[in-house]
Design a protein that fits this description.
Layout: H1 2-31, E1 39-52, H2 62-65, E2 66-77, E3 82-102, E4 105-125, H3 126-130, E5 139-161, E6 167-169, E7 172-191, E8 195-206, E9 222-234, E10 280-288, H4 295-301, E11 309-313, E12 316-324, H5 327-339, E13 346-351, E14 354-359
Antiparallel strand pairs: 1-2, 1-9, 2-3, 3-4, 4-5, 5-6, 5-7, 7-8, 8-9, 10-12, 10-13, 11-12, 13-14
Length: about 350
């Protein structure tokens, strides 16, 4: 028992420290903008239960040892890998029969009963742990590890056959409760954004040898639960915006120079020296006409090392960086954006705060 408790505690520690080591390296790719993290489920499962104990040792049969159970659960995913589940499970138990010879009489032992338990479980999404989460993924394999408390009412039946082949029933009824440790594996398949179907197997180790009202070979009786379930996904109905990998900036319409008419000859006054025009230069990184992203979102999404600001022009939303008073400064900033992966960045000149012309080099 002590060795089992220590091994279970070590397994609990590894269960939650392993995903943490992955998240140190892949935290941005796993959690940023995820439609799976911070979501939940409400589910219903049903399936057969199998019992492991003294009365089934060496004489297991489906007809005598199989019963039915039903459970309700609520589940929450704190990330793409780790989640928690609270579950209420109830069902029936059957076991036996075992034949023994006592005082020259043949005794056939069997039992039946009902149980109810509540558990708190940690969920580890193995699919998202091994491979980065993708919004198009529909199959999810996961592991389950938990702790809980259960109570059961069992009725033991002794059939005694004497020399006259007469049959006597000697019922022994009892109610017990104990701590239990569930561990299991399962998978789910998402049908759309709201419904999931799944299958799960759990072995539920009880810190008791009295599930069958028989003490002896097994120090911990076990309930095996093979369930089939349906779940309502919460928080996944809103469709996430899809971004192009390399969005191209929206360029202004080309300017067409009208054909001038031949004016009558005039005497021009002597030319006057015009003052030198001064411009402010910025670098445009993106522009969209349909999506409404914030400047902070663009800055975090594409890891832009300088502040991004938003400029609106009708339906067009332009995203700009920098504010230079000469082309040398603007060229350096544009080259920095290209090295960061934004290959379509270009320079825009402003005069007196008004967009004047673009510069491509």
């Amino acid at each position: 028992m002590k060795v089992f408790k220590k091994a279970y505690l070590i397994l609990w520690v590894c269960w939650f420290t392993l995903p943490a080591t992955f998240s140190q390296t892949y935290s941005f790719k796993i959690n940023q903008g995820s439609p799976y993290a911070n979501t939940g489920q409400l589910g219903l499962t049903i399936g057969p239960t199998f019992y492991t104990g003294e009365l089934n040792s060496g004489n297991f049969s489906f007809s005598r040892s199989t019963s039915l159970a039903l459970s309700f659960y609520g589940q929450y995913h704190i990330s793409n890998v780790v989640g928690f589940r609270v579950q209420l499970l109830g069902g029936f138990l059957n076991g036996g029969s075992r034949t023994i010879v006592l005082d020259e009489s043949i005794i056939e032992e069997s039992f039946s009963g009902a149980f109810l338990e509540g558990t708190f479980n940690g969920i580890l999404n193995l699919s998202n742990l091994i491979s980065h989460y993708k919004p198009t993924r529909k199959f999810f394999f996961y592991g389950l590890l938990g702790i809980g408390y259960g109570g059961w009412y069992s009725s033991m039946l002794n059939k005694v056959y004497d020399f006259d082949s007469l049959e006597f029933d000697n019922p022994l009824q009892n109610f017990n409760a104990a701590t239990l440790l569930p561990i299991g594996l399962g998978f789910q398949y998402r049908i759309g954004s709201r419904i999931s179907l799944g299958m799960e197997y759990t072995a539920r180790f009880y810190f008791s040898d009295m599930l069958d009202n028989t003490v002896g070979l097994y120090r911990n009786d076990i309930i095996h639960y093979l369930s089939f379930g349906i779940a309502l996904n919460l928080g996944t109905g809103k469709r996430q915006p899809q971004l192009p990998r390399r969005p191209s900036p929206l360029l202004p319409d080309p300017y067409i120079q009208p054909t001038p008419c031949d004016p009558p000859p005039v005497m021009n006054p002597p030319p006057q020296r015009q003052p030198v025009e001064t411009y402010d230069y910025v670098v445009q990184v993106f522009a969209f006409a349909q999506h409404k992203y914030t400047a902070e979102w663009i800055e975090k999404r594409y890891r832009i090392p300088v502040p991004v600001r938003l400029e609106r022009d009708g339906y067009v939303r332009r995203y700009l960086v920098g504010n230079c008073n000469n082309l040398l400064c603007a060229d350096r900033l544009r080259d920095q954006m290209i090295q960061a992966g934004i290959r379509d960045a270009f320079i825009v000149a402003y005069k007196d705060g008004v967009r004047d012309h673009i510069i491509r080099r």
